[in-house]
Amino acid sequence: MATDNNLPAIIIHRLPHFKLSFPWAKNICNPIESSDPLYPIHKPSARILIVVGPSPLNSDHLDQYPSLECVFGTSAGVDHIDLAECRRRNIRVTSAGSAFSEDGADYAIGLLIDVLRRVSAGDRFVRDGLWPVQGYYPLANKLGGRRVGIVGLGSIGSLVAKRLEPFGCTIAYTSRNKKSQVPYAYYPTALDLATNTDSLIVCCALSDETRHIINRGVLTALGKKGVMVNIGRGALVDEKELVKFLVEGELGGAGLDVFEKEPEVPKELFTLDNVVLSPHKAILTPESFDKVTELMIANVTAFFSNKPLLSEINLSDY
Amino acid sequence: MATDNNLPAIIIHRLPHFKLSFPWAKNICNPIESSDPLYPIHKPSARILIVVGPSPLNSDHLDQYPSLECVFGTSAGVDHIDLAECRRRNIRVTSAGSAFSEDGADYAIGLLIDVLRRVSAGDRFVRDGLWPVQGYYPLANKLGGRRVGIVGLGSIGSLVAKRLEPFGCTIAYTSRNKKSQVPYAYYPTALDLATNTDSLIVCCALSDETRHIINRGVLTALGKKGVMVNIGRGALVDEKELVKFLVEGELGGAGLDVFEKEPEVPKELFTLDNVVLSPHKAILTPESFDKVTELMIANVTAFFSNKPLLSEINLSDY
């Protein structure tokens, strides 16, 4: 990677298998990866680090950058960054904010329609040559009239709700607090929400409070005709229980973009037609990446001109 | 099938491989299939015939029922019924009207999201075990901001438009006539529409005028980044040209619920990840079937009490 030593060095932190690259703002900074020959020189003085995707950033990593003042995350979620440790070290943290929200919401609707109407399963049916042999594909489930519960009515959840309205769904939600000026029914817990709906869309942030927020009790409440879509984080759902419910027919179906041990996906799901499996790509479009790049440029510029950062995480919550 | 000879006989007309059955209104009529021992007795006197799905009904069939007054179709489209011949014989024809419209519109949105965001292809990627091997799935395309053209702004097309609005798409349409009180841009031909949009949703009725309405010129106008969804009828699209465009990368992608020679699907499409294939099931949900059954009951009742039929086709158009 060509570097310009007149520009401030910014450390690019990523797991080797996160191959995605953003068009870093090369006119305003000097992006340095650990493979760069100049990396050892810049390590002690670098003030900014950019975390690519969900690459974990822990205290051992932070120890290597004594001058670090700011960590820029490129994901909407920041559960892979040790926020408590950043707070202790007075390191500020930003996320991708709402740059991915539209794509995330679009994909959630796509997964919901797919699970209910069996789009992927129908595609498999045709490609396997079964249409001329078996005739009609079994009836699927209608979307209109379903009671959809949104777990986390944040930036993505709100856009999911807006998209669902013209489909004739009844929308409800759970979140840390009841939102004012929202026309949807509020339930204080995921269990209450699941008890009063038949479809859950999970799109909240992962934290100690939300880990396994979708557990055995919630899945039981959702029931045999219930479906669940998860575009948040794998660990929001107790995956072992989910697999058991799906395999035993105790849950109607699931659309899963995220998993507890990515890229590992429980193999028991591979043969189920009421499940849509997706390789954590709900937000992967060039347009979203452009938005995040713009956000990064704005944040780097703001940082070096001492202006307020965009999409900064309030670390006092952690 | 148990019969009640006190109720009026109604002929059930279907191709043998259309295995779907509706819960016929057995309390108000006596449904007779050609396999029924009483069929030869009822044939000369039957006044009503119900056509199941897209089973063709031509003049040879009609010749067998000299007392026929009314043909009830169970599909939204009636292109499989020889309407000119029905008109000549003074036989009235009804369709499923808008009973399937919501499900058709939902499915169209599902196919559009699937083609753009590669939902089915991603599912295949995971099930084939490629995620841990190849890492990230390639970037897909954003739905928001796309210029979507609807071919046929009827019952289904209007619901498609309504559903697309919150996704941030610009909506335009073509139809026989410009509709008043519709906020979308109107183009008089499919070619004009394709020239001014990047995504087509085909959901008009099939007739002599609309056969191959999506032809080489329209596909060229749609272009390499353009996508097309067809939930209407296979013959609305010149399938040979479509396959050529897709195989040669001259069209961005397609979501196809219908084909020219169903259940045959061109095998060249089976290996393409930018194509979603579906076995003519956009409207197959129990809820839609219930609606059609209700409609049939209402129509049978109306017929025998000399009241106006519901969803009657204006045969003077044919």
From TrEMBL, chains A, B:
UniProt entry keywords in alphabetical sequence: NAD, NADP, Oxidoreductase
D-isomer specific 2-hydroxyacid dehydrogenase catalytic domain sequence ranges: 45-314
Single Gene Ontology MF annotation: glyoxylate reductase (NADPH) activity
Residue intervals of the D-isomer specific 2-hydroxyacid dehydrogenase NAD-binding domain: 109-282
Cellular component, GO annotation: cytosol
InterPro entries assigned to the protein according to its UniProt record, in alphabetical order: D-isomer_2-hydroxyacid_DH, D-isomer_2_OHA_DH_cat_dom, D-isomer_DH_NAD-bd, NAD(P)-bd_dom_sf
CDD domains per the UniProt record, alphabetical: HPPR
Family: Belongs to the D-isomer specific 2-hydroxyacid dehydrogenase family.
Protein known as: Uncharacterized protein
